[in-house]
Amino acid sequence: MIIVAILAIAVLIIGIGIYNSLISKKNQVANAFSAIDVMLKKRFDLLPNLVETVKQYMEYEGDTLTKITELRGKALGTNVSESDKLALDQQIGSAVKGLMVSVENYPDLKANQNFLNLQSTWTESEEQIAAARRNYNSSVTTYNNAVMMFPGNMFAGMLGYQPIAVLETAEEERKNVSAKELFNN
Amino acid sequence: MSTNFTLPPAVQKVVAELEIQRKKIVSNKLQGWSFIVFGIICFVIGVVLGLAILAIVGFIIAIPGAIILFRIGESVSNYKSRFKQEVIGAALNSVDKSLTLDPNRGIVESEFTSSQLFTTSPDRYNTEDLISGKIDKTSFYFAEVHAEYKTEVQTKNGRQVTWHDILKGIIFTADFNKNFNGVTVVRPKNFGSKIGAWFSKNVYSFGDKNVVELENENFNKNFVIYSTDQIEARYILTPAMMEKINDLNQRSAYTISLSFIDTRMYIAFPLDKNYFEPPVFKTLLKPDLLDDDMSVLTFMYDIVRELDLNTRIWTKQ
């Protein structure tokens, strides 16, 4: 009788453990996603400043600047899904990258301290977003493993938890950041 | 490992002088020890055969031996210090003019503890040979460290104290090229940390919540990563950085440990021998005299370049 009771308690404790573990992993995924969101917000906030600074010097890049401003407007708009926001961020990222390359044609801008600060903050935000995305993917993988493997899958079925897709890593993120590439084009 | 370092003529002259000093030290040591050994033999024979006079003579003979050994202590330390200042100093200069050596300083115990490279706090701590320099924007220093902890066991013959190494080797530290606020530690994977990491991954509310699971399999095979901030850990340990640390680890005989704290990075390299010391019983006049020291020196110096610490494209300048 006592053995049965002990076994029942043990099963109950293990069950609670697995259940809680699933919930915590699911929350972790949500948390990791909101971290990306915070980083994206920070990055988008840099744009008006960047556009303003660059505008004074760059005569021929008007189109790019308008495009960046537009994309930012879209990304910060209401009712933008998370995946759209990430896609917009990638577009903004490549537009800014193009802008940074054309900076080479404007020596005065290259010497502007404010611009240089913005440029390094931008690169930093890029690395931080890459880190946040990797963190998200790691949380998703842990969660997916828990949901798909025994015994977690039994509880996941009951809770209606489904595996989540990881974020694709953009080709640029896989590359090593190199100062040479960025500044000495 | 062989390095193609030849001493400049001025330093060769110093080495020749030091060789004379070394020979004198060796002969004094031999003299001192012969007195002592002979004295002890006489003393033992005297005691065994009950010849009090022989025992006393033996004791008296040993005294000058002890005095000689005591007096060459100063000469030995002068020899070592000249070797470090003038010979190792020249070697440092040949690598980079900014490098300086301070034989009597090192990485202080408080810095060793606050680096969080190791979880055990030392009971005995020794450090020497602080080498510092600056490459472009990155300042760095490294020093030899021997940190130990003790265990005590109660036996029937009293307490038995055993000393164990926490680290015997070199700690390298440099200003890191990115800003960060938390603490990230990369430690060699051992049995205990493996279990802790497994629990943190698989079982809720057990194990270490600070374990960071990274994507690089090779990196995960060798290290367990702990951090106060999961995202920051990935901001520091980018895929490129992990590869570089893997390479660095592969070239080190034992698994290295790293920590990122207070905008600095620390790396601990366990080593088998004490570097930057002159030989006493072997000649100084051999071509490979500085090979080992130089290979360690260039290894440390190259870290800044290999880990790309001079890439200052982020907000930290």
From TrEMBL, chain A:
Primary location group: membrane
Q: Which residues form the signal peptide?
A: none
Task: List locations, semicolon-separated.
Answer: Membrane
The UniProt entry, under Gene3D superfamilies, shows: LemA-like domain
Q: Which SUPFAM superfamilies match?
A: LemA-like (SSF140478)
Q: Which UniProt keywords apply?
A: Membrane, Transmembrane, Transmembrane helix
Highest taxon listed in the record's lineage: Bacteria
For membrane topology, the record states: Single-pass membrane protein
Q: Which InterPro entries match?
A: LemA-like_dom_sf, MamQ_LemA
Q: Which family does it belong to?
A: Belongs to the LemA family.
Which protein is depicted?
LemA family protein
Q: Give the organism's phylogenetic lineage.
A: Bacteria, Pseudomonadati, Bacteroidota, Sphingobacteriia, Sphingobacteriales
TrEMBL record, chain B:
Protein's name according to its UniProt entry: DUF3137 domain-containing protein
Organism listed in the record: Pedobacter boryungensis
The transmembrane residues are 37-70
Identify the keywords attached in UniProt to this record, alphabetized.
Membrane, Transmembrane, Transmembrane helix
Q: Which domain of life is it from?
A: Bacteria
